[in-house]
Amino acid sequence: LTIEESVCRMGLDYIDLYLIHWPNPSQGQFVEAWEALFEARERGLVKHIGVSNFLPGHIDLLIRDTGVAPAVNQVELHPYFQQHEQLAYDNAHGIITEAWSPLGRANQMLRDPDLKRIAAKHGISVVQTILRWHLQYGDVAIPKSLNPERQRQNLDLTAFELDDQDMADIAAMDNPEGHTFGQN
Ligand SMILES: NC(=O)c1ccc[n+]([C@@H]2O[C@H](COP(=O)([O-])OP(=O)(O)OC[C@H]3O[C@@H](n4cnc5c(N)ncnc54)[C@H](OP(=O)(O)O)[C@@H]3O)[C@@H](O)[C@H]2O)c1
Q1: Exposed, middle or buried by CB within 10 Å (0-12, 13-18, 19+), for 60?
Q2: Quick check: is 14 in a domain?
Q3: CB of 140 closer than 6 A to ligand 1?
Q4: Range of the domain at 161
Q5: 19, 132, 144: residue to mutate for ligand 1 pocket, most atoms within 8 A of CB
């Protein structure tokens, strides 16, 4: 019913991709919620279904109990928090990893001296450097901007490429505790 209402309120015929925001494990209902999304898909209300903030153990349970893996897992991921294990798990299960806060919410990462150096080397902005890194790293970044000029810049990522040294320098920025403040 909630999905039907969302489709109606947005004035759409269907939703391309619908995600469960997080597993909320203390409630123990995420498998049930996952099964509800099958019905929405069967009814044509959504085309693809996925999850967000699910750890491998949560996805293991979805697959064990329903045999269906999510199309997408949306997690926090950026150069300061690279989520190697989650990405490897998602890849092994055919799940697209989508990166939320891909720019670290425009925090100090945008002033990182190494990212500035790589950006200057290619004549691009730090934000383009980070978004191009996401593309080559293998996730799908969803940067948010209210500014149309920035939105255009954030899509302009195909005329340049980071080299192996750039990728290695950014790999070295990873920090298992590097998630954005207050968003764990
Ligand atoms: N599933 C989840 O649990 C979860 C959690 C958090 C976020 N999200 C989603 O992830 C998406 C993005 O995450 P986010 O908004 O937290 O962080 P983000 O995309 O990493 O950063 C957004 C910030 O970057 C700035 N920005 C964007 N493009 C820029 C550019 N070219 N130059 C300079 N600054 C730029 C924006 O400012 P302006 O708007 O002023 O350009 C904004 O302050 C959102 O759609 C959000 O809903 C999901």
Answers
A1: middle
A2: no
A3: no
A4: 104-184
A5: 144
